[in-house]
């Protein structure tokens, strides 16, 4: 589990490479700093109140847990005799705290790609802390902590289809974060893109990636880290972890090929950016389903996810919003498909894989949790975004954006293009 947690932690610097390469040369450092900033801030607040809000025992309306119950991890590490407290899966609870912390970090950092090259770093940091607190922690509690979207007897699925021995007869499936991570980040990216507005000259002037090798390196490291994300969500070194690992591999490979096929047919060539983006789309799609599918159905899920995401990134041109680095097209579209696709393809229980009437019920449950996560995250994110816009503001000055946000926000540039120093 510690190895898995370390792999997931690596995903945030990997995301910095992925997003940084997709940015323009004059804004690559700012883009990477948004990921590193989230890594620093969310790690701290997770220890202070994030764990308590997500997995505390004092449930508040099924939406979040009391943030003060385990504030600063009190009563979460050792008991009165100094022994490490065992968590739900048998190992020390502190290990699970570390594992879940890394999920909160990467989920927050994902959003930054939708607002690249135009926002104040300080405003981003304020948003990151508020979003983690009021969106991510409640969603983690609702889905994984026994709240409204969980499999327990107090969740909506139990209300719809009844319970047996305290568990919902038809349980929602979100193995590693389709709703909590990707749908929430994707819809938040859309909300921010609409509220903050477009970059200067978008879409009239092409906004080309400045370093495609960075993009491919980032995608490779994300794929590597994702094995901790999905394999670690089995919470044991067992067959389920192995299934999640293999499903993650083949779904991602299929999504990459699906994306490249769309490019080849539509545009006449398959691109490195498409390959890297297809990898991420496949990883997103399989995340909620990694432990519930077979390798063959994972290939199907991944291929469809890659195709849908390849078309999804074009939505910003059709509807006129500036999702700078395709957070909506990749994370929202593929996240929705992966979450809903579980209801169709879950091994022996999906609508198309032998589930029968219960398969139809599972499909309905998956649609409901996907929509619920999207509505909750979108509404709360909008409130936070408007509050920041009305107070400290989001946008840098037009001159700063045109000259380069790296220099104006961070006082440095990624590349020395000024020539020899004059003494």
UniProtKB/TrEMBL annotation:
Residues 1-415 form the Ammonium transporter AmtB-like domain. Keywords: Ammonia transport, Membrane, Transmembrane, Transmembrane helix, Transport. It is a multi-pass membrane protein. Gene3D superfamilies: Ammonium transporter AmtB like domains. It comes from the Bacteria. The chain crosses the membrane at residues 32-51, 124-144, 175-197, 209-229, 241-261, 273-290, 296-315, 327-346, 362-388. GO terms for molecular function: ammonium channel activity. GO terms for cellular component: plasma membrane. It is found in: Cell membrane; Membrane. InterPro entries: Ammonium/urea_transptr, Ammonium_transpt, Ammonium_transpt_CS, NH4_transpt_AmtB-like_dom. Pfam families: Ammonium_transp. Belongs to the ammonia transporter channel (TC 1.A.11.2) family. This is Ammonium transporter. It comes from Corynebacterium vitaeruminis DSM 20294.
